[in-house]
Amino acid sequence: KYFMAARALNEPYSGGCGSFMLQMMIVSFLQHRERHAYNCRLANTMNLGSLLLEFFELYGMDFNYLTTGISVRSDGFYFAKGSKSRREYFHQPSRPFSLSMENPFDITADVGKPSFRMQLIQKTFEVAMRVILSHTAEPAVETESILASILPETEEMRKRATLFKVSKIEEQLKKHGSAAGTKRSESDSNMDASSGSSSD
After folding, report:
1. Do residues 119 and 97 make contact, with C-beta atoms less than 8 angstroms apart?
2. How much is the CA Rg of the chain, to the nearest whole Å?
3. Which of 125, 126, 138, 153 is most deeply buried (CB count within 10 A of its CB)?
4. What does the alpha-carbon distance between residue 157 and residue 129 come to, in Å, rounded to a whole number?
5. What is the DSSP letter of 95?
6. pTM (2 decimals)?
């Protein structure tokens, strides 16, 4: 929601993606992801960064807005929005790129109908995905905060970045400490061995 609000794309009356539709998009994404993992017997990891990237990839690049509608009923499914039973409620000839999202409380209602800026929203998701990939794929573009590259920085994000830096420093200190301890142990062992041979 913050991502959308930062780009003034969060209000349906101005063609943006409202909270309810965004929730339905997220629910549908998780439903299909879980089903795919189950069917392919994959480990369904729940890393928040990976989920965000996959969400952007789905709705920014992979999803076919022209032909496909979304329902979250019955564990979630896609439908052809031009089919006989759906066309009357979900096909918009003047806005073919709109996201057809079935309202689970009224299956003839299209939650996505007011969102006439869906093409811009799709492009925004695609750009965000590519920006994140530029910081995570090799060769990676260095940044203090990957999230700050797609979101205006907040105090909470600054605190998390600081905590992350502190934890990294602590890890390095522990590694150096254990390495130094190992060297001391080896040195002590060598001294013991040499003193033992001298006494012999």
Report:
1. yes
2. 26
3. 125
4. 19
5. -
6. 0.76
Q: Which residues contact 144 (CB under 8 A, 6 or more apart)?
A: 161
Pairing of strands 100-103, 106-110: antiparallel
For residue 136, which amino acid is it?
A: T
Q: What is the pLDDT of residue 102?
A: 97
Determine the average pLDDT of the residues in 116-139: 93
User: Got the DSSP string for 47-110?
Assistant: -HHHHHHHHHHIIIII--TTTEEEE-STT-EEEETTSHHHHHHH--TT-TTS-EEEETTEEEEE
In whole angstroms, give the CA distance from residue 127 to residue 135. 13
Res 199 pLDDT > 60? no
Give CA–CA dist 15/92, Å, rounded.
15
Say what percent of the chain tops pLDDT 90: 57
Q: Which amino acid is at 158?
A: R
Q: What is the pLDDT of residues 75-101, one digit of tens each?
A: 999 999 999 999 999 999 999 999 999
Q: What is the pLDDT of residue 87?
A: 93
Q: Angle at the Cα of 74 (from 9 to 100), degrees rounded to 5?
A: 30
Which residue type does 94 have?
S
Phi and psi at residue 77, to the nearest 5° = -160, 160
Reduced to 3 states, what is the DSSP secondary structure of residue 89? helix
pLDDT above 70: residue 185: no
